[in-house]
């Protein structure tokens, strides 16, 4: 409005002579033009707003609008695939840099349409699956849009199906990619390789050094440690949602659902069916289906019609037989249905065989033994079959893991492109690679099982000795007595005093008892019980003796014997006073027990030997808020340690030597019962709290303790190695 | 006219402003209207196509069944894989049988050891016709002789050519379809899944046994160098954790200051060793090693710990002797033949390893005593008592009653092994009692009878005497240690300086290393090991000298577990009488022949001394504690 007013002032002579009708028209027109001018001028100063609105537009483009690239007939063709390629010869690791997250970075070329000299397109621009695949990469952590930072390049040229390709022109299209460089660090995805009549088992497009993630590799074409074998996608697996079916026997023992089998193979299978009757089912295409019924979703045996892939769930074993191609989409269907695949395809490289243990989830039978397949399968024990079935169900479990990041990827095999990246990632950063178990162990099994960090059976040499760690606050007199007593133990190699009192300095050097081993005092920043379990650099032995500053009743023989017992059980807590946890049926929760019982499940760390590694675990790997709970309550650090060790090793504690009256936390109560009882209540609380944090009760109950071989035997005391046990 | 002029100027003004508009704003407006190509700087990712839903699938449903199968392809260009070049039909029956071509002319020490290790194994056969695998040792460079084409060559089918030294011999004949087992094969010639890669066998590599790994503790000591780099001339250069690492992408220009060179033959005391494949550029390698260092420093202590232990396990299980290397090779090939009943990878990759966990016993890890923790399973809650009745052959009625009284006892098996006729009547027991008529041989005691239906076996001699609570307590202990032997009476071995050999004694000492199998719990898997993996000579030894069988059984278990057995308390009175003691002063019915020197013979056959000593006994928690006996669960163990 402002602009029009100005105009009115400037041109009073002009306007009155115009007809009213025109005047209004022109004024409006000018106002609009000027408004437009001002608006565009403002846009010039607001480039960012243009950008952001741009983004939104780019995301929503049509595949048909992508730029067209004309490939001259004489443009260069890459060499044929180099069969001798390996990671160290054909892959440039230096491009992958060294980044803190140990993740490779993947770049995707922009989508283009390639045409030849005559304007005829080279291939379909992109298929639905390849689009999803690239989308998954782009949504993953591996993606980068900076071509200079990328380690792996994925062309947007879709070569999933060789049948739809013009081989020479596709190769030319690859060669003109901006970072092609003989194809090194380029990753191609292909599922249907080869073509009639010979059906090569790898993509025929010349691709030089490019990595190939292919379905249907054979041992002849697969470059071990370079290519990645992937499953052939089955369109059905995305469409059909099969209910989960647990392990156990099924209606059919062996089922073949493939159509278009080689007549010889079909004869073999049908012979099996004749021989074994009902337990074998050989299906084929349906010939007389009514109109409108999808033939891919039906299979027939004689006149019986079955729903596919649902019928796969009715069988224990499902045949996956080679066709002209080795990789068969039926493998995906079979896996999804939880049927154990019987792979009959000589020299086939099973998908992801580099990391997946197919022995655990499938049976591979040589083609020449096809007629024996029934008896081979019969010889597999039922338990092993159930394990395989369980293994198949772990696949969906893992799938959820992967697809948490991108929910479109809900079909069985679609996490694969991420898996591929992970496999290649492992090759580039092998030291950070995921272990075999992590790839193959179902999380379900992991609940009950443990992988003991100290799994190697080893008896550490006696000569190393142990480090005693005394946690103290201010009971100097008692502390000095403990130091003097412990220093008499032959295998003691160092004594560490953890001074937990910030308000008071430790006594002067001259006042400490003179002992034969080094004595170090560590001052702590805060009065925390967890300080006892810190992996101090001063601990140079594997064995640690944690001892309270008031435990003066243990004899030198008992301590030395405790150390010898620890050497035989270096992955356990070996301690003196034992305790037990019990299930209180009335209160419906755990209860702490310190009475004279026939069982033991914990040892107090007021006097216990253990491996230094558990200090590291306690300090850095304690689950949940247990450490804070312990420090806040100033109690239960020993129970926490018992939980931690039992949880990680799956083993029970070892209690050594007979029971004696200990001056232990429970016994310090001066006026008897009441204090004692609150203490017990608090300890019970700890057990319940820790059990809920660990999500399980890891403590193991045993009925044994360790004594010297000749303990209380009728044998001359002076000939016993540890005579002074249980005395005092 | 006037109005036209006015109109003209009006038009002029209008067009001028339009021009301005186009000049100023047209470009930006255009940008608004037409989206440009994605800019490299902005993070965009793969576009969401408007018509993504309309895209076609890469293969149409009707296209998939298009593959009508063709006959299997023939291998290209003389290359081989397992299916094409190995005939498994010869291997049916007792699995892998190996024939070794006898050596012609003088042979080297390594060669002799390899021959010995195969001939002593369960794989060996003397008949080339009955063999499934024919093994040809490619002669080494020392003798300078190269073998000619062997007789049963048949284009190399089912042959394994063992090459100890890379390219020791010029090829006098085409390898054809033969598998090659050699040290450091090259990537180009190695056929995965067909050839076998071997470690390099030094001349002095022991035949069997082999030095144990040098890792004596689980975690590295503080102050030990992190990385050692292999140099030329066998030296080692070490780098500390403190040294600065080079940037990954830049070429390192620093002087390798923090390192120290150790010119010595022995391996350095470092956490990691970098082996660079015998290339001369050692100096530049060192700089790269520093980059590796940066990577290694990131590794968590838990990971380092796991790697260290795994190296030791692999060394002990597969590398430490010629015999292990050769047997591993054969086991790998056997696994290929077995297919579905091959070792699961868990058995290969965790202690005690695939050579000691026989896949012929089971392929399910839970059936073995070693993997309960990894599998999250527990040993069974029941046991089978196997009572051996040797001459004079009194039916052990009291013993049967005591054992059958245990709540954990599932069955009792009586192994009748003497000339007297089987008694027709046996005591009534709560559990099934089966009598097996044995072959009068001691080794019968450790045969894997199919009638044994539990994992735990309580092995007994008819003259043993045990109480029910002793059995109960010992079985509970065994459940905590299912891979070990849990026994009542013990033996201990010692090095006899005077005779320069091993000796053992049944005297009571402060330590023990063996438990008597005349009263012991152990896993039934050890019966399979005893019968199927032990060299026949050792089983014969046990038959000839029955007292040796205890030693032998303890050797087997210790070699597998690398742990000592476990002793539980045994009533004092009877201990005095020592009815279980072997060959000792105990009341053996007939005078024993002086025990042969079995421990040294067995140790020689094992190649090392696997026995380990323990100084502890596992007692009930309240054992002999000053507390009311009413509180004690196993009070009868304490009766004087």
Shape of chain A: extended
Shape of chain B: extended
The proportion of residues forming helix of chain B, as a percent range, comes to: 25-40%
Specify the CATH architecture of the largest domain in chain A.
Answer: Alpha-Beta Complex
Write the CATH architecture name of one domain in chain B.
Alpha-Beta Complex
Family (chain A): Belongs to the glycosyltransferase 47 family.
Pathway (chain A): Protein modification; protein glycosylation
Membrane topology (chain A): Single-pass type II membrane protein
Subcellular location (chain A): Endoplasmic reticulum membrane; Golgi apparatus, cis-Golgi network membrane
Structural account:
The complex is a heterodimer of chains A (728) and B (640). Chain A is α/β, with parallel strands linked by helices. Chain A folds into three domains: 64-233 and 413-442, no CATH class; 235-288 and 295-396, Glycogen Phosphorylase B (Rossmann fold), CATH 3.40.50; 464-663 and 672-706, Spore Coat Polysaccharide Biosynthesis Protein SpsA, Chain A, CATH 3.90.550. With 640 residues, chain B is α/β, with parallel strands linked by helices. Helix content of chain B is 28%, strand content 15%. Chain B has helices at residues 2-33, 82-85, 109-119, 282-297, 301-319, 322-338, 345-349, 372-375, 397-404, 468-480, 525-533, 536-544, 548-561, 572-577, 598-606, and strands at residues 98-100, 133-138, 159-163, 179-183, 196-198, 225-230, 236-239, 260-262, 270-274, 383-389, 409-416, 433-437, 456-461, 486-487, 490-496, 501-505, 514-515, 519-523, 566-567, 616-620. In chain B, β15 and β16 form a beta hairpin. The longest helix of chain B is centred in the N-terminal third of the chain and has 32 residues, at 2-33. Chains A and B meet through α2, α3, α5, β14 and α11 of A and α1, α2, α4, α5 and α8 of B. Chain A: One of its GO terms (molecular function) is glucuronosyltransferase activity.
């Amino acid at each position: 409005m402002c602009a029009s007013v100005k105009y009115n002032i400037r041109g009073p002579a002009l306007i009155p002579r115009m007809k009213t009708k025109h005047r209004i028209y022109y004024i409006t027109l000018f106002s609009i033009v000027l408004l437009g001018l001002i608006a565009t001028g403002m846009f010039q100063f607001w480039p960012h707003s243009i950008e952001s609105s741009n983004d939104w537009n780019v995301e929503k483009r049509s595949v048909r609008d992508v730029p067209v690239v004309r490939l001259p007939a004489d443009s260069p063709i890459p060499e044929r695939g180099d069969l001798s390629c390996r990671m160290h010869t054909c892959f440039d690791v230096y491009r992958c840099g060294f980044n803190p997250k140990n993740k490779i970075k993947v770049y995707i070329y922009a989508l283009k349409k390639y045409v030849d000299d005559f304007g005829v397109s080279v291939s379909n621009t992109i298929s639905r699956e390849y689009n999803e695949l690239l989308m998954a990469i782009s949504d993953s952590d591996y993606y980068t849009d900076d071509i200079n930072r990328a380690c792996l390049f994925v062309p947007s040229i879709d070569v999933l199906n060789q049948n739809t390709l013009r081989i020479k022109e596709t190769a030319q299209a690859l060669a003109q990619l901006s970072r092609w460089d003989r194809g090194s660090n380029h990753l191609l995805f292909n599922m249907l390789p080869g073509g009639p009549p010979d059906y090569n088992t790898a993509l025929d497009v010349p691709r030089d050094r490019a990595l190939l993630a292919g379905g249907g590799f054979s041992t002849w074409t697969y470059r071990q440690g370079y290519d990645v074998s992937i499953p052939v996608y089955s369109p059905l697996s995305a469409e059909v949602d099969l209910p989960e079916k647990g392990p156990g026997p099924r209606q059919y023992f062996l089922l073949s659902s493939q159509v278009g089998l080689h007549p010889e193979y079909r004869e073999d299978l049908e012979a099996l069916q004749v021989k074994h009757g009902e337990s074998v089912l050989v299906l084929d295409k349906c010939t007389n289906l009514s109109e409108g019924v999808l033939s891919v979703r039906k299979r027939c045996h004689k006149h019986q019609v079955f729903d596919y892939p649902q019928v796969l769930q009715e069988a224990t074993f499902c045949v996956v037989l080679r066709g002209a191609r080795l990789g068969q989409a039926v493998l995906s269907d079979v896996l999804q249905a939880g049927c154990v695949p019987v792979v009959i395809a000589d020299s086939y490289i099973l998908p992801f065989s580099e990391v997946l243990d197919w022995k655990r989830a499938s049976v591979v039978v040589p083609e020449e033994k096809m007629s024996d397949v029934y008896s081979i399968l019969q010889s597999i024990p039922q338990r092993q079959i159930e394990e395989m079935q369980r293994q198949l169900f772990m696949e969906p479990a893992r799938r959820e893991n992967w697809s948490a990041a991108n929910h479109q990827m809900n079909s069985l095999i679609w996490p694969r492109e991420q898996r591929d990246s992970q496999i290649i990632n492992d090759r580039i950063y092998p030291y950070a690679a995921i272990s075999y178990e992590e790839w193959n162990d179902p999380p379900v099994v992991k609940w009950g099982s443990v992988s003991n960090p100290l799994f190697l059976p080893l008896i550490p040499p006696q000569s190393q000795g142990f480090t005693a760690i005394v946690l103290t606050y201010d009971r100097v007199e008692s502390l000095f007595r403990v130091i003097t007593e412990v220093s008499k133990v032959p295998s003691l190699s160092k004594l560490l005093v953890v001074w937990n009192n910030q308000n008071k300095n430790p006594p002067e050097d001259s006042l400490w008892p003179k002992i034969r081993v080094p004595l170090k005092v560590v001052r702590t920043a805060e009065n925390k019980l967890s300080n006892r379990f810190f992996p101090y650099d001063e601990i140079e032995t594997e064995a640690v003796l944690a001892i309270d500053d008031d435990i003066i009743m243990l004899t030198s023989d008992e301590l030395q014997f405790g150390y010898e017992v620890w050497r035989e059980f270096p992955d356990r807590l070996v301690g003196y006073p034992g305790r037990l946890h019990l299930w209180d049926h009335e209160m419906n929760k755990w209860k702490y027990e310190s009475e004279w019982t026939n069982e033991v499940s914990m040892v107090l760390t007021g006097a216990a030997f253990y491996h230094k590694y558990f200090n590291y675990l306690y300090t850095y790997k304690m689950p949940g808020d247990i450490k804070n709970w312990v420090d806040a309550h100033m109690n239960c650090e020993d129970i926490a340690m018992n939980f931690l060790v039992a949880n990680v090793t799956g083993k029970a504690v070892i209690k050594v030597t007979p029971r004696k009256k200990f001056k232990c936390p429970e016994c310090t109560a001066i006026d008897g019962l009441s204090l004692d009882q609150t203490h017990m209540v608090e300890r019970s609380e700890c057990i319940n709290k820790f059990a809920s944090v660990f999500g399980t009760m890891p403590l193991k109950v045993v009925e044994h303790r360790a004594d010297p071989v000749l303990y209380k035997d009728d044998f001359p005391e002076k000939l016993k190695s540890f005579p002074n046990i249980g005395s005092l | 006219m006037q109005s036209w002029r006015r109109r003209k100027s009006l038009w002029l003004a209008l067009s001028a402003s339009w021009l301005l508009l186009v000049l100023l704003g047209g470009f930006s407006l255009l940008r608004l209207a037409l989206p440009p190509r994605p800019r490299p700087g902005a993070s965009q990712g793969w576009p969401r196509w408007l018509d993504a839903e309309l895209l076609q699938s890469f293969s149409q449903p009707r296209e998939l069944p298009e593959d009508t199968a063709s006959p299997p392809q023939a291998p290209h260009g003389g290359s081989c894989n397992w299916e094409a070049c190995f005939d498994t039909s010869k291997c049916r029956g007792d699995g892998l049988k190996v024939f070794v071509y006898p050596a012609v002319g003088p042979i080297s020490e390594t060669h002799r050891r390899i021959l010995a290790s195969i001939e002593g194994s369960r794989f060996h056969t003397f008949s080339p016709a009955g063999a499934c695998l024919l093994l040809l040792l490619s002669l080494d460079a020392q003798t300078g002789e190269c073998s000619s084409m062997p007789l049963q060559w048949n284009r190399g089918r089912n042959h394994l050519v063992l090459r100890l030294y890379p390219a020791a011999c010029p090829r006098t004949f085409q390898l054809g379809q033969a598998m090659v087992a050699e040290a450091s094969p090259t990537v180009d010639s190695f056929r995965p899944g067909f050839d076998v890669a071997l470690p390099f066998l030094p001349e002095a590599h022991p035949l069997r046994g082999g030095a144990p790994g040098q890792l004596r503790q689980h975690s590295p000591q503080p102050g030990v160098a992190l990385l050692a780099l292999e140099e030329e001339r066998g030296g080692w250069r070490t780098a500390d954790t403190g040294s600065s690492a080079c940037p990954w992408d830049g070429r390192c220009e620093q002087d390798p200051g923090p390192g120290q060179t150790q010119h010595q033959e022995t391996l350095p005391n470092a956490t990691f060793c970098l082996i660079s494949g015998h290339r001369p550029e050692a100096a530049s390698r060192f700089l790269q090693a520093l980059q590796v260092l940066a990577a290694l420093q990131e590794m968590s202590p838990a990971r380092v710990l796991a790697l260290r232990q795994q190296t030791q396990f692999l060394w002990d299980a597969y590398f430490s002797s010629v015999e292990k290397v050769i047997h591993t090779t054969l086991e790998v090939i056997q696994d290929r033949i077995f297919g579905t009943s091959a070792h699961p990878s868990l058995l290969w990759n965790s202690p005690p390893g695939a050579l000691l966990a026989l896949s012929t016993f089971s392929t399910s890890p839970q059936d073995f005593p070693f993997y309960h923790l990894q599998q999250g399973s527990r040993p069974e809650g029941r046991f089978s008592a196997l009572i051996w009745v040797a001459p004079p052959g009194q039916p052990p009625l009291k013993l049967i009653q005591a054992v059958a009284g245990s709540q954990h006892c599932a069955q009792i098996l009586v192994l009748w092994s003497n000339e007297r006729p089987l008694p027709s009547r046996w005591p009534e027991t709560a559990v099934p009692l089966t009598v097996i008529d044995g072959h009068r041989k001691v080794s019968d005691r450790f045969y894997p009878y199919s009638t044994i239906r539990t994992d735990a076996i309580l092995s007994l001699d008819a003259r043993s005497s045990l109480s029910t609570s002793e059995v109960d307590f010992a079985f509970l202990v065994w459940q905590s240690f299912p891979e070990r032997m849990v026994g009542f009476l013990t033996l201990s071995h010692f090095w006899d300086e005077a005779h320069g050999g091993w000796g053992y004694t049944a005297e009571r000492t402060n330590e023990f290393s063996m438990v008597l199998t005349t009263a012991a719990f152990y896993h039934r898997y050890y019966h399979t090991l005893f019968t199927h993996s032990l060299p026949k000579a050792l089983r014969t030894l046990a038959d000839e000298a029955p007292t040796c069988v205890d030693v032998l059984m303890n050797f087997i278990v210790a070699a597998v577990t690398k742990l000592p057995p476990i002793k539980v308390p045994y009533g004092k009175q009877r201990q005095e009488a020592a009815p279980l003691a072997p060959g000792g002063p105990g009341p053996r019915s007939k005078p024993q022949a002086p025990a042969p020197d079995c421990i040294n013979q067995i140790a020689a056959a094992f190649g090392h001394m696997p026995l380990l000593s323990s100084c502890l006994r596992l007692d009930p928690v309240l054992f002999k504690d000053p507390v009311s006996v009413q509180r004690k669960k196993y009070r009868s163990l304490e009766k004087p």
